[in-house]
Fold this protein.
Amino acid sequence: MEAATLTFSDLVASGLAAVEARMREATPAENPELDAALDQLLGSRGKRLRPTLVLLSAGLLGADQARTVDLAAAIELLHTATLVHDDLIDGSLLRRGHPTLNARWEGGATVLIGDYLFSRAAELAAATQSLRCMESFAGTLTTIVQGELNQLLGSNSTDLRTAYFERVYAKTGSLFELAAEAPAQIAGTRPATQRKLRDFGRNLGIAFQIVDDVLDFAGQAEEVGKPVASDLRNGLITLPTLCHIEANPSDAEEVDLLLRGELSDQAQGRLITAIRNSGGVAAARAEAEGYVGTCLALLGELPSDRPEHQALGDLAGYVLQRTQ
Amino acid sequence: MEAATLTFSDLVASGLAAVEARMREATPAENPELDAALDQLLGSRGKRLRPTLVLLSAGLLGADQARTVDLAAAIELLHTATLVHDDLIDGSLLRRGHPTLNARWEGGATVLIGDYLFSRAAELAAATQSLRCMESFAGTLTTIVQGELNQLLGSNSTDLRTAYFERVYAKTGSLFELAAEAPAQIAGTRPATQRKLRDFGRNLGIAFQIVDDVLDFAGQAEEVGKPVASDLRNGLITLPTLCHIEANPSDAEEVDLLLRGELSDQAQGRLITAIRNSGGVAAARAEAEGYVGTCLALLGELPSDRPEHQALGDLAGYVLQRTQ
């Protein structure tokens, strides 16, 4: 089988080019400043994993190509919009190794550019001409925003592990879930298949986010594009830290101090080294592997007559292998 | 005819109560702080003119009641979301005489609460189960945000009058347009009637915004809920000022200085008094009357067999009469 030897990125290359073009076409700018901001945001070429997942899921089911491209562009613009507001709220100055909008622009413009991307994403979602897809799109936006509010204002979950996985689902799992399921809504696939794709997407998104959090500890600053352990330095507890204190309860107190902003910089450095060198990072990676294992099991129950089946498995493997 | 003696507010009272309940039900809060913010935002009871227009337009056409309530709640939540971000960008500390969210909250939370209202509004719009209505909803959000971006970054229109009416359409005309037209999309009314309602809404919204701008000059601070001539003080040129300098070209230079931030406070006070006392305010009000006249002419071409026909005319009259 020739198709089976294609990597997933070869299989979606022409589709992704159409998605890139659609994103830029759907965001015409009346102001030169807005145009420059959109160039920066849409030209920074992230990994485009969400559009890739949309294209592969749609290909697996034979969904209409034009509506699939609209959907993939909608999801990537929605993702970009949430990053713009997220960076503004965090005060982050770097994203993917490049200055963020709010590093260059005043806050008001950054708020509005995020809003502009939300509205253009909603227009593209409406262009799919699927009510179910529109409903899922709006519901996913609510999940993401509610997750960010919980992160800022505090969630009801006092247990750190529960709070972590709620946040990971809201931040990443929910949009991957949408990316995998919405093509099935467009194609009008039967509900059982829709649910399996939804579960595949959610598990893949959670694995992706865990690996992101692992790379924040294990990666080199130059590769990740931000300082090492930046989450911890910002008082955000991720899975490597959770695994570390579960295995080393004596360090839990230091994490408590960190959460209260009372840990000295020197002690913070010691804690980061301990997490990097202990089994915390490896244990977190093992949990990500578990989520990818669930993806592969679900894939075994999905239609396997198209090359996208193999490519979805390759995509799941890639999520574990990536180093940035 | 008993119904004809009802005022428009009597006719929509029970519908508006359902809309209020729907708005609160559609915005459940997981955090006590979010809950308090939503109480403040949704409990401040603005005039609810947009939901009133939705209910009257739907009543005129016999649109489904439950979907109409979803639509009206979606439009008012969208309006509230834009106000939240708008106040944050302006740094406004008062709205309707009450402290704005950003007067009490940090910027990050205000951004996210606006986003939360956008997403809940989108979910309600999807609940109308009308693709056309969803498309209009998303397109209107784009118009509003693009208008705000033009205001912040500068628009292509160098002519002050053109720029003013573009801004008024984006800020207010477009959402009134949606409020009048979308019920016709839900009801599946024929296109000619949809267009007339759309035009009615747009003209009503423009009249409403002009009166708002007139009241900013002519009203008392206590009634309007913000300082007199706050727009001008913030460097924003509205119709009373435009009419004033069109009739008194010698004052155009002072307005130029104001726009460049080079007019002294004393000279600013003199200019405000001149606009209040000259024919500028009256001329602007006369233009608003012209837009309401267009509304009444359009109403004459719309179905007249229900009490909502009379009530839409009363609503147009109310827009001119209001003092706050």
Q: What stands out?
A: Strands of chain A lie at 94-95, 98-99.
